[in-house]
User: Fold this.
Amino acid sequence: MNLGTFSGNLTGDLVLKYTANGKPYATAVLAVNNAGETDFLPVKVWGNYAETLAGILRKGSKILATGRIENSQFEKNGTKVNYTELVAENIEF
Assistant:
């Protein structure tokens, strides 16, 4: 089962965007305290939920996000880059 729950503060406002097909999604980065160090986890939310949350969540908002971890790979300047993000199904604030 691919399910993770993370708690932390947003490093910036939740940014609302739309796919080429018009599907809404919002992204932000979550700063998570990990035994005295800070990890930064990109978070993505899809659909009407994204539109709703984008009007509410701002830089510094403390949230609890639950969802699945998604890994992807792309090439940038001839180098393969691995990218990991949390696709959130539920966000509490």
Notes: The longest strand covers residues 62-76. The two ends are 25 Å apart (CA to CA). Residues 74 and 81 are 5 Å apart (CA to CA). The helical segments are 47-54.
